[in-house]
Amino acid sequence: MSKPQGSNVKERARTALQDEFLIDAVKFTTERLKNGKKAATAEHGNWEEWRERGRQIRAHTVAHLDYYLSRFIENARAQGVHVHFAPEGKDAARIAMDIAKHRGAKSVVKSKSMVSEEVHINEAFEQIGIESIESDLGEYIIQLANEPPSHIIIPAIHKNRRQIAELLSKEAGETLPPETQVLAGFARRKLRDKFLEADIGLTGCNFGIAETGTVVIFENEGNARMVSTVPKIQITLMGMERLIPTWDDLEVMATLLPRSATGQKMTMYMSGITGPKRTEDGDGPEEMHVIIVDNGRSLQLGDPDFQELLNCIRCGACLNACPVYRHIGGHSYPGTYSGPIGAVLTPALNKNAEEWHDIANASSLCGACYEACPVKIPLHDMLVYLRNRKVERGVTAPGEKMAMRGFKMLMGSHAWFERAVKAGQLGQKLLVRGGVIKSRIGPLGGWTAYRHIPALPKKSFREQWTKVTAEAETSFKPMTDEMKSRMEKIVQSRAKGGH
Amino acid sequence: MKVSLFITCISDALFPPIGEAMSQLLARYGVRLDFPKVQTCCGQPAFNSGYWDEAKASAKTILEAFDDSDFVIAPSGSCTGMIHHYYPKLFEHDAALLEKSRRLQEKTYEFTQFLVQVLGVTDVGAYFPHKVTYHPSCHGTRLLGIKDEPMELMSHVEGMEYVPLPYAEDCCGFGGTFAVKMSEISGAMVEEKSQHVLETEAEVLVGLDMGCLLNIGGNLKFQGKPVRVMHLAELLYEGVRNREQTAGV
Asked: Exposed end of chain A (fewer CB within 10 Å): N or C?
């Protein structure tokens, strides 16, 4: 099964929901990651305090992003790094292509980078006849399948082992058994040649350390280390918000990120790259470029509802925790990023473009994303803010607008509410069978396709109130002094401003 | 001391026995509930859909209804969560209403919070000889931090066999208008939740939010499964009645 088709989230989700392989694969892995995170954070202890520290570091950096960016750039340049700035995705691709053309490069080997997906770097290189190969195993698999990643950390999460064996067999020209060791062994041999051939190594950046101009990369496969040491030229794409002030702050991030992402205590490889190869270094690129990518990020700066989006450290924990993501997979989302973070980030990065908005509706607002987030981004609130912005722009469906006008009238005064309930009690007679409503007409259809609705009782609670309160009186017992004093204390503490 | 009942629109229209159970239970601790009739709905359906003007019209009835109450209690973590978590946002540009909403927040409690935190009651003296599982609703646990209160109340119910719900923390897929707008996704979520409920082989599913219980209960009924679905207030009251009847009260 390739990417679910459809023009909007609802349609793509419908296709995905029917794809048992996809849903089973996604459920299996998100569950494993979620449990891993739970165990790792419990074992580490004081997780809430670590989260809060992480939030503070990220919020502080983003609040002073101009300062830390200039520090980072100054320090990286002092180490001999060529620093570029790309206002939009296409600028980043153009800068990378210019470097490649100028150096006469024929091939690029890449390590995992979400920002490179955002700027479509592989397609850009392809256009000018440069081969660009993904070296992260998951990314390699979906590159062979010609699909975008469906998860921030596990790009091929939607594929099962058998599907992966088919893809790699095609590439190998022989049938490979669906065994992890065999498949990984094939990719390893194949990619080893690519590392040695490549003129350019292209990496992402998990954290840029402002005080030294260092690019820090977290990975598990060792491929990013190969990418950043073997080829003569290194290009690093860095989202402009990836910074942290100091190496001390990295300790907090190194605690939060792997535990949140995969439940690992530590990432297998953590590389800190400060400038190109020096004469005394054994390896490393002779030339190093960092392309700092804005691509809609600066639009969030100063926006009280969305600035915290820039705090994200791309761990994917919100995807693993999200019951909607688990049911529809990453390809049901419209942009590069999926899950709760994608549902907010995609509209935000794309200037809140109207066509992206329906993704904000694909959430039950359960808050599992916020609970999972290692830097406490209130994604569940942001989804509501996005819906509100759509309403403010007046681009919601006419039927919905009418329903909400009705809500305002009926709920705006108790008299209307009471009339509406009465009308419902009388009017439902045509629909009720055996105490429930099963009818699938009108807006009820989505609900009754999966559920029965209980009929409204003959009398609402408020209609019964006089009787209820009189009956309760017969069981009345005086309050104990202890309870009285507890209640009085609470009321007094409010008056003092405490609660 | 004026303790007011915020019944919530859903329990008012669809589930009157919940309000009755609350009134009856609290009377036994010396609390005479007050019921201001100007209340309608917390405004959440409109707020969550992004229609904040519409939400305000509804939320204002709540501000007005409970302005002179000392305590406000609601049989819903979600509606209580709306007041605590979203009223500051809803009224951020209106200083007078913002102040009113701040006062409402500090006195509004979800039902089990009020019993346990305010009254200090953890054993209502209930007898309920059934196998029961509990779905902790997302807004109650995540917006209000209600975790221990219902567990503590249930742990003192005699004769009751409590079976933990697998994947209890997963959302049931209700999400208000989400269930209608994204019905297939919501449907898949509620089917998974029902499956977990059925795995427990419980006779009764109990919870603190009628939105979620309407959803899960509606799906169980749709599937023809005879699981009884109740609000915890109803379960406790029925348990108290069981005990009182045996004792001949």
From this structure: C
User: Which helix (H) or strand (E) covers residue B34, if one does?
Assistant: strand B33-34
DSSP tag of A295? T
Count of other CB atoms within 10 angstroms of residue A22: 26
Shared domain check, B112 and B38: yes
Q: Assess whether B232 and B154 both reside in one domain.
A: yes
Interface test with B, best of A26, A357, A366, A482 (most B CBs within 10 A): A366
A 372-431 → B contacts, CB under 8 A:
381, 384, 386-392, 396, 400, 404-405, 407-408, 410-414, 417, 421, 424
Q: Which residue has the tokens 């509990």?
A: B134
The string of pLDDT tens digits covering residues A364-393 is: 999 999 999 999 999 999 999 999 998 998
Dist. CA B9–CA B41, nearest whole Å: 5
Domain that holds residue B35: 3-119
> Which of B180, B173, B218, B184 shows the shortest CA–CA distance to B14?
B218
Interface contact B7-A461, CB threshold 8 A: yes
**pLDDT, position A496:** 73
Q: How far is B36 from chain A (nearest CA, A)?
A: 9
What CATH topology corresponds to A9-299? Rossmann fold (3.40.50)
What residues of chain A score a pLDDT lower than 70?
A: 1-4, 352-357, 497-499
Answer yes or no: is B146 within a domain: yes
DSSP code of residue B158: B
